[in-house]
Amino acid sequence: MKIRYLSGLALASSLVLSACAGGGTADDSGSTGSTDAASAEGANSLLIYVDPVREPACLAFQEKMAGEAEVTCEVVGQEEILTKVQLSNQTGEGWPDVTFNPSNNVGIYQDPLNGYALNLDDYVDPAIIEGYEGSGDWCLIDGSYWCLKNDLAQTVLWYDTVIFEELGLTVPTTMDEFSATALKLEGTGYVAGAIGDQGFYAGYLWPSGCPISQVVDTDTVRINPDAVECTRVFELVQPLVDAGVLDTRGSFDAGFIEDVARQQNVAMTIGPSWWGEFVIRPEDSWGIEAGRMTAAEMPTWTGESTAWSGEWGGGVWVGNANHPNPQLVADAVVFLATDPDMREDKVTFPGYGPAFKKWRQRLIEDPFYAADPTEAMVIQAPKIRQTERPARFDLRGQLGVLGTEIQGSSDVEAATRTFMDGAAELARGVGYTVVN
Amino acid sequence: MRLKAKTAARINGILMFLPYFVLLVMFAVIPIIMAFNVSIGPSRLSPGGGVGNYLFVLNDFRFLSALANVGLFLAIYLPAMLIVVAGLSLLLDTISSKYTVPLRLAYLVPAGITGSVAILVWYFMLEPSYSPFAPLLAEFGLTEGTDIFNTSNLIYIFALMAFFTGAGNWIVIQYGSLQSIPDEVLEAARVDGANAFQLAFQIKLPMIRKYLIYMLILVFAAGLQIFVEPFLISSSVYPGLAKDWSLNQLSYTLAFTGSNLGAATALSMMLMLVMVGLALIVIYRTDFFDEAVVKTEKERA
User: Which of A15, A80, A109, A262 to mutate to test the interface with B (most CBs of B within 10 A)?
Assistant: First the structure.
């Protein structure tokens, strides 16, 4: 009987252990950071988590601070940062001191129950904030700055000058013109972009002002698919989908890239500022030939006086409020977010004005673009619509649902409603009251 | 004298069990107690603690769909494993011994691919823009990635991945259990005129029945916790495609992006209860351990 009992116990515990293993994979990767972090504690040491793209900036800061502070740069993917911070919150130690994050994370960190984000107001020179000329206001929550924007991902209208000339098209300045122009592509094989991903949110719903993550106050968020700012998007976009001039796959979909983009068939597309260098140009992505593409200002929605942009990306630097030396943390955030030399050769549009001026020069002179694309980016930078705000629910994850639904049903209204219903549930799940 | 031997046996037993016991306490018992405490602790929407986090999970809009996904996945995966593993191991057992070594290797190779790598392999095989089987896929009208990678196909895709990464190992293991059937038994059956089919279905299968049940339970335990496949496919390949698709994914999301560790641990505790329940069934309602008991009693006598 004893043997039976012991072997039973062994089997039971092996099943239990295996029950823990599934969730454990995430925990394992998370805990490595915390142990390393322990060594970087102390008033003069900083642990910085950056993604591979941002690592050179961190190493430059490390070099700059040599002798003054002990800076550790650790490469951690953007997706993992939130997990690691949550784990540190749980254990009460081991936080990374500066992190490079997807933009929405700041809404979660700023939540007092989380408490990770350092309020930068007392530690950052107001001139730095002014250098953003308002384009860094994503980080402004409850009257304080909780992060600094690394780059802006404002949407612009990318268009192919060769196709426009061939078909005798003019660059649309309103969304109605955009729709009319797109419909002229019917039957030509050309398209006006792809919407089966985050691009539909960033390029259509957000600029139109559709309330999806419209944080009213700490406990209230407005999410309403019946708002006219949403319904006008459905009404404008669905006919374009039906006509086949808006592809329902994503802009990064292997099929779309192969069948459409690489065939030089994208006549125009609403997309963020970083697409030029990161998506449109690279040989292994869309591979558009030199001398064709450039960017124009966003078209204006009927009834709006401003041609608003949305944002797709635009990472933020956040400091650790638990560090004993907040000034050091803030200095690191400022350097990483704004140093002009570090931004010059990057694909993304620097949010900080002086850094941008240096970055811009390179693109103006670049023969890849049919015309200077930065003009439109500059005009759109202060026009990122501030109706969408950082919230403490994971809107970024939920955006995947939007893309999946559009790809699956090609019904933009139904897809958006499913996505927004989910967003409302998520918002309630973290304590928001959802209003219309 | 006899008493002394008994004490020695007991000490030996304890010594052998001790290392496992230490690990068990450190990495299972303590985490479970910690998780339980968190699960009944306060959280934003359940400031009073108690069963609030459990109710939060049960009422979560993603819970039922995740449960249904995992249930349907298991409904495909488990029978497929049982039938194919039993069938192929029986076949392996019947063929001439000079082929079994290369065949066993062939069964094991796909099992060398873990869940995370399987995502990439299957993505490239099923994505028409990359797939070497693109013409074949086109025959079935599958010309775009989204024709295959869409929400209604996920259950089949994950079952396929799990099956190919898991079946090979089990075929070889069950082949091993077939080898343990005494030759005399098989010989006697042959003498009595049993043909290959009767031998397989009336002699061999019943004799490895308990090993197959054991396999089913372990496979069920692994399948119930499916995480890596849906997590990876929706975090990189098709963002959001399988978001919160499985129960473990929901637990992960609740903990790390939902800032609700209480609810996450509550869900994990519920999954653990299912596992413990299963373990108890195996121990007390099947005869899996009976042979061991009989043997030791014989030895004692």
Answer: A15
A75 and A91 housed in the same domain: yes
Q: What is the CATH number of the domain that holds A180?
A: 3.40.190.10
Per the CB < 8 A criterion, the answer to whether A251 and A192 are in contact is no
What values do phi and psi take at B149, rounded to 5? -85, 75
Residue A407 Cα, gap to closest chain B Cα (Å): 7
In this structure, are A301 and A319 located in the same domain? no
Residue B22: inside a domain, yes or no? Answer: no
Q: Are A154 and A374 in contact (CB under 8 A)?
A: no
Are B43 and B52 in contact by the 8 Å Cβ rule? The answer is yes
| Assembly ipTM | 0.78
Q: Residue B227 is inside which H or E element, if any? A: none
B90-140 pLDDT, tens digit each: 988 888 777 878 888 888 887 778 777 888 888 889 888 889 999 999 998
Residue type for position A303: G
Q: Rounded to whole angstroms, how far apart are CA atoms B226 and B219?
A: 11
Q: In this structure, is residue B88 part of a structural domain?
A: yes
By residue range, what is the domain housing residue B113?
63-243
Q: Which domain holds residue A354?
A: 42-149+313-362
Q: Is position B107 within any domain?
A: yes
- Per residue in A390-411, pLDDT tens? 999 989 888 989 999 999 889 9
Rg of chain A taking only CA atoms, in angstroms: 23
Mutation test of the interface with chain B: which of A407, A418, A426, choosing the one with the most B Cβ atoms within 10 A?
A407
- The sheet with strand A214-217 has its strands ordered as A214-217, A220-222, A433-435
CATH no. for residue B89?
Answer: 1.10.3720.10
Yes or no, beta carbons of B150 and A407 under 8 Å apart = yes
Q: Do A19 and B61 touch (CB under 8 A)?
A: no
pTM of the model: 0.82
User: Is residue A296 located within the same domain as residue A336?
Assistant: no
Domain boundary among A301, A329, A362: A362
Would an 8 Å CB–CB cutoff place B63 in contact with chain A? no
- A298 close to A385: Cβ distance less than 8 angstroms: no
Q: Taking the CB of residue B4, how many other CB atoms lie within 10 A of it? A: 8
A84 C-beta neighbours (distance < 10 Å), count:
24
Closest chain A C-alpha to B237 CA, distance in angstroms: 9
Q: Distance (Å, rounded) from C-alpha A74 to C-alpha A51?
A: 8
Residues A218, A180, single domain; the answer is: yes
